[in-house]
Amino acid sequence: MSNLLASIDLGTAIKINDTQSVGEQYKDLGSLINLIVPNIFLLAGVIFLFLMIAGGLSIISSESTKSVEEGQKKITSALIGFVVMFSAYWIIQVVELLTGLKIL
User: Fold this and answer.
1) What are 25-73's pLDDT values in tens digits?
2) Contacts of 93 by beta carbon, 8 Å cutoff, 6+ apart
3) Is the pLDDT of residue 13 over 80?
4) In the structure, what pLDDT confidence band is assigned to residue 6 with cuts at 50, 70 and 90?
5) 35 contacts 26 by C-beta, under 8 angstroms
6) Which of 28, 54, 78, 91 is most enclosed, with most CB atoms within 10 A?
């Protein structure tokens, strides 16, 4: 019963290109996370920018109070998301400083 699943080494099974596998490119999970996290911050910044623009345009072009409220909600949501991402970045910086580990 214990031999039902095949054992696969994902480090060598998944290829990035013809010569290199994922396991050869990223030796541990930390190096993969170090690649992903800064890109997540970049994506969050772009989303923040678009939400601020959409909220501002919604307020400017509104003819009713409902549109103004929707625009304000978009801007409020964007600012809350920005504060959360900004806090996460600085928490990571403090953890790096206290532990001496390079996270980002």
Assistant:
1) 777 777 777 778 888 889 999 999 999 999 999 999 988 888 899 999 9
2) 104
3) no
4) low
5) yes
6) 78
Between residues 38 and 78, the one the model is more confident about:
78
- Whole-model pTM over 0.90: no
- Please list, residue by residue across 37-50, b when 16 or more beta carbons sit within 10 angstroms of its beta carbon and e when fewer do: eeeeeeebeeebee
Which amino acid would we find at residue 85? M
- Coil, strand, or helix at residue 4? coil
**Phi, psi torsion values for 68, nearest 5 degrees:** -65, -45
Which residues face 67 on adjacent strands?
none
| Residue whose entry in the numeric block shows the structure tokens 């930390």 | 30
Count of residues making up the chain: 104
Q: What is the spatial distance between Cα 92 and Cα 38, in angstroms, rounded to a whole number?
A: 11
Strand partners, 71: none
- What is the spatial distance between Cα 78 and Cα 86, in angstroms, rounded to a whole number? 12
